[in-house]
Amino acid sequence: MLKLHFAPNSRAGRIVWLLEELGLEYEINKMAFHPKDLKSDAHRDRHPLGRVPVLEDGDLVLWESGAIVEYILERFENGGLKPPVDDSRWPKYQQWFHYCEGMVMPPVNTIVVQTILLPPDRRDETALKQAQKLLTRALAPVDEALAGKEYLIGDFSAADVMLGHACFMSNRVGCVTDEMTNLKGYVERIAARPHFQTAITMQ
Amino acid sequence: MLKLHFAPNSRAGRIVWLLEELGLEYEINKMAFHPKDLKSDAHRDRHPLGRVPVLEDGDLVLWESGAIVEYILERFENGGLKPPVDDSRWPKYQQWFHYCEGMVMPPVNTIVVQTILLPPDRRDETALKQAQKLLTRALAPVDEALAGKEYLIGDFSAADVMLGHACFMSNRVGCVTDEMTNLKGYVERIAARPHFQTAITMQ
């Protein structure tokens, strides 16, 4: 059976969300988002940097949420969450899937580091402000693309599992502005999905 | 015909490299890595943030190097650069493909911003040092994975087009240390590929 190594408030939530949307069975190793678990010898044997998510399937140990999403969709169950290659929606599915880590998550990470993870005396106001500006800019094209659409390519897809999760995090750190009306509605639709709620409230 | 919007010293080099490796014909719009081109109205019509690469194919305008690589491999020519889904190398192909933007490029970007793009009086030594530390850490698992291998999954693949390019950039900014002997050799092998040289020297 698939085994997911998980910590709350991390990209591991994407994988719980996907597995729940697809109705797949899985085991879960719930760790604290804390060095005592993530930097433990046991977890460093799975991922030398102590990151989550990690997916185990028999002898395979797989990192990177994007790769794990692909693995689950292609090897286990697609559930209509990834258009076929010849589908007209497939190129933009790919674009938004990659936009998540390429454009949105780097400033989200910096903001989390500069507002939560670092002790106050080591925080850097300039780095924080710069990341907030970058993130707001990176979200504008997503807001625009969502005009007249429920989800990124119309119907809900695994691109939403990646980028929708990143937009939810962006909203949580205060960077989805009131002017981004399409994006605000999108984050609300994501947050209202029962399987997303399961994932985001899991400890 | 495929049309690539390009600027030197950017992720657009990945796409030139891939197109050359595959022997595909393409048009290219060579821009300067400068706001006069990248932030021009013409380019902002293609990508609202003025980023490269952008690929045009008829009416389709596609962003994100990872998505463009997928598009070329799946819709045009695979060239043996992506293992099939049931191949035992496919999961780690996916992992390293996504590791590029997930783990390696965020600190590379910060280092480039803090050493080249920002004027000296606006640079932040703390942010630079932190990014250098992060990048060195992120490269260690790549060095380890390359033990006894020429390329990330053995044979050259599109995972090398993504992560190999990022490792070349990491070496250029001084973060591939002498102790990372596998990674040093890998960067040399990448740099010696004729089609990589075409891409990296293109202005």
Summarize the SSE layout with pairings.
The structure is a homodimer of 203-residue chains.
Chain A: E1 3-6, H1 12-22, E2 27-30, H2 35-38, H3 41-46, E3 54-57, E4 60-63, H4 65-75, H5 90-117, H6 125-145, H7 158-172, H8 181-192, H9 194-201
Parallel strand pairs in A: 1-2
Antiparallel strand pairs in A: 1-3, 3-4
What does the main sheet of chain A amount to?
A: 4 strands, mixed
Alpha plus pi helix count of chain A: 9
- Strands side by side in the biggest sheet of chain A: 2-1-3-4
**Global geometry of chain A:** globular
> Please, what is the oligomeric state?
homodimer
Short synopsis of the structure:
The structure is a homodimer of 203-residue chains. Chain A has 203 residues and is α+β, with helices and mostly antiparallel strands.
Describe, in plain words, how this protein is organized in 3D.
The structure is a homodimer of 203-residue chains. Chain A contains 9 helices and 4 strands. Chain A is α+β, with helices and mostly antiparallel strands and 203 residues long. Chain A has 2 domains: 77 residues, Glutaredoxin; 104 residues, Up-down Bundle (Glutathione S-transferase Yfyf (Class Pi), Chain A, domain 2). In chain A, strands 2-1-3-4 form a 4-stranded mixed sheet, covered by helices on one side. In chain A, a hairpin with a 2-residue loop joins β3 and β4. In chain A, α1 runs antiparallel to α9 and α5 runs antiparallel to α6. The longest helix of chain A has 28 residues. Chain A is globular. The two termini of chain A are 21 Å apart. In chain A, 45% of the residues are buried. The model of chain A has no long low-confidence stretch (mean pLDDT 97). At the A-B interface, β4, α4, α5 and α6 of A face β4, α4, α5 and α6 of B.
